[in-house]
Amino acid sequence: MKVTVDQDRCVASGQCVVAAMEVFDQRDEDGVVVLLDPEPRAERAEDVRHAAAVCPALAIAIED
Amino acid sequence: MTSTVNPVDEHAARAPEFPMARAAGCPFDPPPTLRDLQREGPLARVRLWDGSTPWLVTRYADQRALLGDPRVSADIHRPGYPRQAPMPPGGTGVSFILKDDPEHARLRRMVTAPFAIKRVEAMRPGVQKIVDDLIDELLAGPNPVDLVEAFALPVPSLVICQLLGVPYADHDFFQDNSKVIINRNVTPEQRSAAHGNLIEYLDGLMGEKIARPVDDLLSGLAERVTAGELSRNEAAQMGVLLLIAGHETTANMIALGTLALFEHPEQLALLRDTDDPRLIASAVEELLRYLHITHSGRRRVAVEDIEIGGEVIRAGEGLILANDIANRDPGMFAEPDRLDLRRDARRHVAFGFGVHQCLGQPLARMELQVVYGTLYRRIPTLRAAVELERIPFKHDGSVYGVYELPVTW
């Protein structure tokens, strides 16, 4: 699984952090997404997919 | 007179009025007409207070798609935007929630940092203390008592005051003016006057923060005003938005959620008997889904033609996305009318969707987790002090809830 994020689209809802905090974080200055792990391990796949599904700005893309 | 029927008049004649009334005795369910329209098809015309007939979008998948669609605008000044009420005379400007990107994003990003997950988590012990102290006071005070006044309103009001840097001593003033602004039945003049009062109040606070910035959200905005990134009026607008949204919505979720749990004792028992943060978080999501207090629909206008299920929404036509019925869409949630705190309800649209999704949702979620995770455990015999029929619901509010909830223990 390969993950990419679009920081311009991000609206800092933080729901990706709630879903998968090992993979996503937020910038201190404005809460915009920071990708910690662009190739998460298989056991995190479900959480990462959930993060992408609940992202209100559709700023998370997943490639299997 | 000619026999030609103007298509707009024809729509108006047949279209049901929006917002719609809930069924008697079903205070937790969306209006039955919304359910019928959802069953019949993805789009329907509805008639608003001004005679306009925007499209109503009822299904979950369509709402998510449209709220994330760049062909849809949230700009209240565009022709065709389905307004909730007449524009107040001599309008005082609008906050970023009624603007499109890039202006919306520029302004919103100025206030996103305090709502980041880690910052909100850092506030949790302080919120727990606020909740514990209020419960201590509740238990030491009169029984029965109105839970709205004694608990549901003070919790989020204290929290948002702390975050923004607004003196809580002024809570009667800002709560009373907020109530007017979000009431559907007040005149435009009354609403405008209440909004003006809050703008003036926030502008005064902004002056203090510009002169003596401290560590709070309004001081952060004050620094941007000083730096020339934001006008003082824009800063006051944002302050008003955050102050109203920060207390009214969460207060309604606390009181209405508690009443819904009284009506579902087996679900209440789950919360009373657990300290599992996952179950408590799950309960918050389910109550958000089930109650959906922002029951006036997300308002938008199409800027290009958009096809949905064989119908075409024309550029310039208004859209109302009724999130409350989307959260009860059987195509998304199995047995949607059942309150089930154990279900995975996390994909609800109670906070909306798209770039305008509620800014404060991480804070609201955390506050509700603390409240639902504490109140019923601390007061296990908590129950309504009057019959359901005697509880006044906010049918006239743009945000739903109860005006009063007498409780005993």
Structure description:
The complex is a heterodimer of chains A (64) and B (409). Chain A has a single domain (2-63), classed as Alpha-Beta Plaits (2-Layer Sandwich), CATH 3.30.70.20. Helices cover 23% and strands 22% of the residues of chain A. Chain A contains 2 helices and 4 strands. In chain A, a hairpin with a 6-residue loop joins strand 2 (24-26) and strand 3 (33-35). By secondary structure, chain B is α+β, with helices and mostly antiparallel strands. Chain B has 15 helices and 10 strands. In chain B, strands 1-2-8-5-3 form a 5-stranded mixed β-sheet. In chain B, a hairpin with a 2-residue loop joins strand 6 and strand 7 (311-313). In chain B, helix 5 runs parallel beside helix 15, helix 7 packs antiparallel against helix 11 (232-262) and helix 11 (232-262) packs parallel to helix 15 (361-378). In chain B, 44% of the residues are buried. The chains are: A alpha+beta (64), B alpha+beta (409). At the A-B interface, helix 2 of A face helix 5 of B.
Shape of chain B: globular
* Secondary-structure arrangement, i.e. CATH architecture of chain B: Orthogonal Bundle
Strand order of the largest sheet of chain A: 1-4
- Overall residue-averaged pLDDT value of chain B: 94
- Give the count of helical stretches of chain B: 15
The quaternary structure here is: heterodimer
Count of helical regions of chain A: 2
How is this structure best summarized?
The complex is a heterodimer of chains A (about 60) and B (about 400). With about 60 residues, chain A is α+β, with helices and mostly antiparallel strands.
